[in-house]
Structures are given as C-alpha cells and as structure tokens.
From TrEMBL:
Presence of the UniProt keyword Mitochondrion in the record: no
Gene of this entry: Cklf
Main location group: membrane
Subcellular location: Membrane
Lineage: Eukaryota, Metazoa, Chordata, Craniata, Vertebrata
Name of a matching Pfam family: MARVEL
UniProt membrane topology term: Multi-pass membrane protein
Protein name: CKLF factor
Length: 137
C-alpha cells in the first residue's frame, strides 16, 4: 500500500474527483434528472475510485501489461468530453434546482478531469522511456 499517495497532488485530485462526482450524482438523483446525467456521474465516481485504488495498492506496477497512466489520461479526456455535453445540457435545460446544481458540480468535475489529464500527461512525457534505460544502438 502506498500510504503517501492520498496526500500527493494526484491522489488528492482523484479523491476530489470522486467526491464531486458523488455530489453531482446525489443532486441528479434527488432532482430525478434524465438517466444520462445520473449514469455519467455514477460511472465517473466508480472509475475514479477504481483508478485511485489501482495507484493506492500499487497494482499499476504489478499489472504492467497495460500502461496505466495513459489509460488514466484517456479516461480523463473522455470523461471531460461527456461531462461537457451532459452537464451543459443539464444547466441549460434546468428543469429544477437539483438539475442545475448537478450540472454545476458536473462542470466543476469537468475542470478537475482536465487538470488531472494535464498533470498525468506531463508526468508521462517527463518521465522518459519505459522499461530498461539502455541507450539505443
């Protein structure tokens, strides 16, 4: 277990994403918003918690058949695109105050997803090549 991960910027960002997604889900569920809003918030919270556990338990180092940081960047970018569409729709339609609040929390989640993708992409691009560090001939 990597006990320092929750206190790191990446760990704190993952926790923030999960909490904001949970709050957006609660707002959408309480307001009886369309299924796409609620489903997107639940999926984002679940996937973020799974990535948090992956890094917390250091499973990314044990399951090295996939480059997990790149998968995490892909998840963050796709989540940001879906959140942009669904949450803008929720804010514009605004059937009630719960839908509006869920849409606003979804837009905050969108910003957190973009920040997470940028931080992860910078980490990937500055860490250098993966595997052995022998120079190419």
């Amino acid at each position: 277990v990597d006990s320092g991960f929750p206190r790191s910027p990446r760990g704190a960002l993952k926790l923030a994403r999960a909490l904001v997604a949970a709050v957006a889900f609660l707002c959408f569920a309480a307001s009886r918003a369309p299924g796409a809003c609620t489903a997107l918030a639940v999926m984002e919270a679940t996937i973020t918690v799974l990535f948090f556990l992956l890094y917390l338990l250091r499973l990314d180092q044990k399951l090295n058949w996939l480059f997990w940081p790149l998968a995490d960047v892909f998840n963050s970018v796709m989540a940001a695109l879906f959140l942009l569409v669904v949450c803008l729709f929720a804010v514009i339609v605004k059937t009630n105050n719960g839908t509006l609040a869920g849409g606003v929390f979804g837009l905050v989640l969108l910003v957190l997803c973009v920040v997470d993708a940028v931080i992860l992409f910078r980490k990937i691009s500055t860490d250098g090549p993966r595997g052995t560090h022998t120079p190419a001939k």
